[in-house]
Structures are given as C-alpha cells and as structure tokens.
Amino acid sequence: MATTITNLLTLVKWESRDKQFSLVDATGVVVGNSIYRRLAALIDWPELNKEDTSLTTVAGQEKYTWPATYNYIDIMSVEVQDPYDNTKYKQVSPAPSEFEFTLEREKSSSFPLLYKRANDGTNNVIYLSPSPVVGSLTIRLTGQVEPTAYTTAGDTTVFISSSADDALAYLIAADILDKREMPQRANRLIGKAAEVLSKLAGKEITPNELKSRVLEPDGGN
Hints:
221 residues, alpha+beta, elongated, disordered C terminus
C-alpha cells in the first residue's frame, strides 16, 4: 500500500548504504520524482487509471479546454453521452489523420465521431468533430496519469502494492550506487526490482528494460 517518502527513504538508505542521501532536498526531490514517474509509465497501474467527467458539450462548439485535474500520459478512451440512445456513453475515435479530421469537421453538427488533442497557443485543448449538436452532455476521458509529485517527507506514493514501493526504493538506491561506480550492487538491486515488477505486471520485465526506461541508459556517466 502507499508508503510515506520517509519510509521509502529508509529502505533507499539501507539498500544503497548511504546514510546521507535525501529524497526531499533540492536534488533528491528532482531525482526521486523522475524515477517515480518513469516507473509509473512502465506498467498500466490500476491506481493510475483515472476518469475525468468535468467537460460537457456545448451545441455547435468543437473546441474544449483540456482539464488540468490529471496529467494524462496515455489516453485510453474519449466518450460522449449519446442523446439519441438514453445518454449512454459512446466512443469517439482519435483522428487517424488531419485530412480525415477536417472532412468530419466540415459536416453539420451531429454526434462527434473523431477527436484531436492540440494546443491553441494558450491552452491544451481537445477538438470534437463534427461538433456536438446537443449541449450539456458529459464528455468522459479515461487514461493513465502521472503520479502526483511528492514534495515533503510526509507525502505518500500512489502504489496499492507495498512491493511496488519496494521496487521504487531498489531503483532509486541502484541509481545512487551506479553513480558512485558500484555497478555490481546496483545491478543486483535492479534485478530485485525486475523480479517484483514482473510479478505485478504479469509479464516479464527485464533488468535491461529497467535500465533503459527507468534509469539512465548510460549509467549517468
């Protein structure tokens, strides 16, 4: 289950044999959160699967400001309530190309078939094409989000499994050891993290994958 940064640091210090390292000083906050985010992006964690229903349609309006509630790293679905089918949610597909999106947006307002994310120079936005013909219908966004960055020792991680917290601590400790030119112990900890994460993910995650996707590929040299 979620653990505090204080508890995480206790394991990091033990595994790295570094009593001075801090996860909440200027460097530790940046390094710790960077590894935390990259580990979160490695697996489709259920605790990071979020829905947002803050947007509602406006008749004839195609552009909506993307909500700032979550920082999505992968959009799994965009749905809009269908006014012609008891307001059941219906899937809106990502635009396969700008050309096809433009063809749809030139049509009269109806139920949206395609969506496109963009930045209008001021805000991150989502376009629906064709524009909705009916207003006050909920737009439901579902996807994987980044974990909220920690800032203090009392903050907690997002993970449901304590084993995931252990894996995070192993990887942070491995990063410390690797930068201090202790690759043998660093590799042992990466191997322990790979074993834990493979069980949680239900698929093999190799030490090399962790090195390339979570830790620095070049070992930080």
